[in-house]
Amino acid sequence: MKDGVNAAVRRVLKRLHYPLDVMLLCVRWYVAYPLSLRNLEEVMSERGLLVDHSTVHRWALKLLPILGKLFRQRKRTVGRSWRMDETYIKINGQWRYLYRAVEENGDTVDFLLRAHRDKVAARRYFEKAIRNNGEPGPAEQFYSLVT
User: Fold this and answer.
1) 3-state DSSP call for residue 2?
2) 82-91 and 108-114 as β-strands: parallel, antiparallel, unpaired?
3) Which is it for the CA torsion 3, 32, 123, 131, positive or negative?
4) Which of 41, 58, 113, 122 could form a disulfide with 53 if both were Cys (CB 3.0 to 4.6 A apart)?
């Protein structure tokens, strides 16, 4: 980690008593896998670490904003050719609107998931995606679903 990152992490972790690698491991497993906080408590106890599920939740609340910011800073640049679209998908038996920006090779640049179709939120999302990643492709190839 760089010095700026270390300073930010130190401020957040000021009063936490566990080693950083244990906290990052718990938060990573919580985010990456379909584990509940109580599952993580059990996994850690099997490894000889007594960690309460509410402690893991506090770690997630404190660390995820910092990690998100760090990942956005280190995100690879998006090519000039990317498109935005809107689709309707079923998640856990409920229909949702998925707005997404996709690169030419199929990698997702950014996405927004909404319960209801919302033109204002979609426009804000698309404007933010353009501001963060540059305007996608030549103007004649660019299309917007929120006109």
Assistant:
1) coil
2) unpaired
3) positive
4) 41
